[in-house]
Each structure stands twice: as structure tokens, then as C-alpha cells.
Amino acid sequence: MPAPAPADLLREASLRVTKPRVAVLEALVQHPHADVDEIVHAVRTDLGSVSTQAVYDVLHALTDARLVRRIEPKGSPARFETRVGDNHHHVVCRSCGRIGDVDCAVGHAPCLTASDDHGFSIDEAEVLYWGTCPDCTNR
User: Which residues constitute the signal peptide according to the record (predicted)?
Assistant: First the structure.
């Protein structure tokens, strides 16, 4: 089944469909784990002139609507992706910064059971695995 079109995702989230919002979603489909500079470049390639602030505003709205997920690996600018709602994790290369998706080790989000939840109702866990990617290992 093909992924829903960006315009349909925006409508389902009760967000107005605008060219910058569609362009940002399309950029993130093409460039998962992109930082703001990469997204701005992709959006400008698609639309022409668009301000960096406009892209930040779109990312904020899309993140609030849970259409986009923001991840912040230590020592790296914030990254964004459209894979949301499945509580997956990430692996990060210490050398080049490449990021990959990692599904939960067991079929059902085992990491949602904290050793001490301090009374919180936990609905998401964020795990980062660090290592060296195959390209950097083979250099």
C-alpha cells in the first residue's frame, strides 16, 4: 500500500495544505534524518525562494501534529523524519554521523517498561545506538 500523499497527511492532521508544508514532507521522504540545512536546500530546489525561518515554522507545526519526528543525537544538529508512531530507534555512526532506523528488538516496544516509571504513563522511548558504519569501518 503506497504512503499517503503529503497533502492528505496535512488534511488528516487538520493542517492547511501549503506549498512549503508539502515540500518539507516530500524532502523528508527523500532524505530521512535530514537536518534543517538539508531540508532548506531540498525545499529551495523544489520551490525556489523560501526562508530558513519558514522551514523551521513548518517543521515545528509538523512535529506538533506528529507528522514528523525530531531526533537529537548528541553532538549533531536536530534531525527530522516522517517515520512516526512506531517507537523505532536509531543507530548513529560516531565517525560520519550517518543515521539508520532500528526496529525494537522484540515485536512489541519492550523498552516502554521502565525499571522505575516515577508514576509517569510512558508512551514512547528514545534509544540511540552508537557505533561505526560499514563505510567508515572499511576506510
Answer: none
111 labelled binding-site residue? no
CATH class of 6-80: mainly alpha
Question: Using one digit for the tens of pLDDT, what is the confidence trace for 105-125?
Answer: 654 555 667 778 898 887 777
Nearest Cα to 26, choosing from 12, 9, 11? 9
Strand partners, 34: 80
CATH class of the domain whose range is 85-137: alpha beta
Q: Any known ligand binding at 93?
A: yes
CB 42: neighbour CB atoms within 10 A? Answer: 19
Give the model's pLDDT for residue 106. 55
d(CA 64, CA 45): 25
pLDDT tens digits, residue range 6-29? 999 999 999 999 999 999 999 999
What are the sequence ranges of the domains in the chain? 6-80, 85-137
> For the whole model, what pTM was predicted?
0.85
